[in-house]
Specification:
single chain; 367 residues; alpha/beta; Rossmann fold; 32% helix; 17% strand
Amino acid sequence: MLKKKSSRANSPPGVTPHLVREKVSLTHGDGISCLALAHNEDNIILQFLDHYRAMGVRDFIIIDDHSTDNTFDILSAQEDVSVYKPKPGSSYQVDKVAWRCDLLDQLADQKWVLLPDIDEHLIYPDMANRDIQTFARQIEAQGAQALFTIMVDMYADKPLKDHAFSGGTLTETFPYFDNPSHSLGGYRLLPPAKRFLKRFPTPPVCAYGGVRDRMFFNEIGSASSLSRWALRKFAHLGRALNPNFVEKQTNAFTRWLTKGQFGPNPLSMTKLGLLKWQKGLRLSGGPHAVSENLTLAKTTGAFLHFKFTRGSAGIEYIAKRGQHAGGSVLYQKILGQGDLLDRSPFNQGSVVFEGPGSLIDCGLIRP
């Protein structure tokens, strides 16, 4: 049974221990809500809103995390957006879990919610013919409480340092993603660490891979023949999302065997992008995992992930700000390999995104 937090239960509408509402949506409560955190997103925020509006979202809840550009002004001008700001002294690094969970407890108990980042566009099967409310009803009818979602890094055929968005659409500017079957070290399903699973049991397996993993962290070239066999046999994207006892053992064995190639804490590309919130749930940091056992839908989704939209200056800013995991250690590591920023991520395994079918054909989405 979920434990309800008394410190969060009695907050008045529009106020939580760490946030205050600056502006309320005129459509608040209409259908599925989309909750996201924003910091200096004025170059892509309208693309984000348009993408989710097209799938039927009419209620956005956005936390403006100390933006210094035009993000707050843009959000405040949108009729379907409620805008929150942190109270003085509250920061992303310390309070990001509370920001989301407090609002979800207050506004979305027993409701389906979308939990993307601003640079993430959800893709799900047959989305041209069914809106997000219909999709949620269909997976709930099958007993699902959450949608397993893989983050798919998108990129252009130009040096990463020149990946900057200046207009048009994001998929036109960054049309490519990695085919998971092209490289043995591509996208793979493996369990997180045991200590993590004890606190956050859903999902029991996570997706790893993508272009950042390929360029900056992957050392598959040093893999033994046994490691390569285990990855092919037990870490492919068709593996069970709710593994049985034997599958759990082979998953754990493969994780242990491949630590030398991917490290003990590889970059997770998993999100629970759509889930039915229950008061008292806790997120693992971002919406990568939750504190209770939830039933995952048999189908899956993907987030088109537009991480590089401000060139090398954007990466340097994230690393200097130090608000991401471990003081933005992953971004500092990327900058530490600066010569790689001069390379294009395009290779023989690059695929053009042409709709949900592109991801289904590669196995990144299960229809």
